[in-house]
Structures are given as C-alpha cells and as structure tokens.
Amino acid sequence: MGIQVKPLYRAFQLYQKSGKFGDFALLKADALGAKATPNLAGRLAGVAGYYPEINVEQLLQYPPGTFGREYAKYLTSNRLKPFNVSPEFEAIAQRNVFALRYAVTHDIFHCLLGFDTSYAGEIGVLAFAAAQNYSPSLKISLTCAKILYPLLAPPQRRAIGANLAKGQALGKQKVNVMTF
Predict the structure, then answer these.
(1) Residue 40 to residue 99: CA distance in whole angstroms
(2) What is the DSSP secondary structure assignment for residue 118, as one 8-state letter?
(3) What's the rounded Cα separation, in Å, for the pair 10 and 17?
C-alpha cells in the first residue's frame, strides 16, 4: 500500500485543529501503511473497532496499585492525554485494527515497560514492539529512529542505546500487550 500523502497531511491538519493525538496517531499509522503481521492480525480480530474512551479522572479513583490507577498516574505525571479516538474514524478503526490498537495502547506500553516519554523512552517502546513482531512497519520505524533519535537528542545518546537494548530484550520475551 505504501505511504499515502494526502491522508497523512489530513491527519496532521486534524491534529493541529483539534489536538486529539489519538485521532492523529490512528490516521498517521493508517496513512503510513502500518499493518499487523498475519499472526497478530488473527489475534486482534476479537478487538476490531474496540476503543473505549479513557477517563483519567475515573481511573485515578481506582485503588492504589491497580493498573488503571498506575496508568492514570503515569499520564498525569507526564502531562499526557490518553490517545482517545473519535467515533468519526470508526471505518478506519474497523479496517486497520493494528493502527487503532497501537495508537490507543502506546502510552500503556510506556507504563508497563517503564520507559519515559523522552526519545530514549520512545525507542525503548519501539524496540519492544518491533521485537514482538507486531508489524513490519515498526521494524522500519525502529531503523529510522536508531539514526534520527541520537541526532535529535545528542545528550540522550547513551540512554537511547541502553533503552534500545532493553526494549529488544523485553520484546523477545513471550508477552503480548497488544491484545489485552
């Protein structure tokens, strides 16, 4: 399928107008041709189109130590908004389950894996997802990130290398957070 320039530009424009990063992440992944590997696609069939709205305030009311509360604390401490997706993108959510799932679970990966939101943290999450073999597009993204991130954040070079190795090691373990 390849990169679709018009939908990618539309995703960027939408993000600038609305600030809804979930919509942007879904449209960007879809426009870049992100698709699940056949093995993962079969496992994702059961969650096709499932993207409940994440309410951080509600999650903060959960008991201490629960995943919901820890996730909400991660979001608030990093000043992040959940990657909620608007209902108007239902067709894309149904058609490209991987793009939807990766968009709405991205910060969950950070929370579960213990990676921050710096370039070093992002490469750790990306290395994990690529090693889990979720999508060929993640391996391409990781190759690009290995080159770009040290250039974009020279003081993080060591941390980028360490998190790259840690993410790959974690990703080689038999765990799959994509389908929960």
Answers:
(1) 12
(2) S
(3) 11
| Per-residue tokens: 88 | 């108007």
Mean per-residue pLDDT over the chain, rounded: 87
What confidence tens digit (pLDDT) does each residue in 67-87 have?
A: 999 999 999 999 998 888 888
* pLDDT for res 75: 95
CA pair distance 157, 97, nearest whole angstrom:
33
* Signed CA dihedral, 45, 137, 30, 23: sign only: positive
Report which residue type is found at 1. M
CA–CA dist 136, 151 (Å, integer): 24
Question: In angstroms, rounded to a whole number, what is the distance separating the alpha carbons of residues 39 and 158?
Answer: 34
Report pLDDT for 64.
Answer: 93
pTM score of the predicted model: 0.85
Here the tokens at position 103 are 């968009």
Name the residue with tokens 């939101």: 117
Top-confidence residue, 170 or 15: 170
For tokens 């190759």, name the residue.
143
Domain extent listing, the chain: 114-171
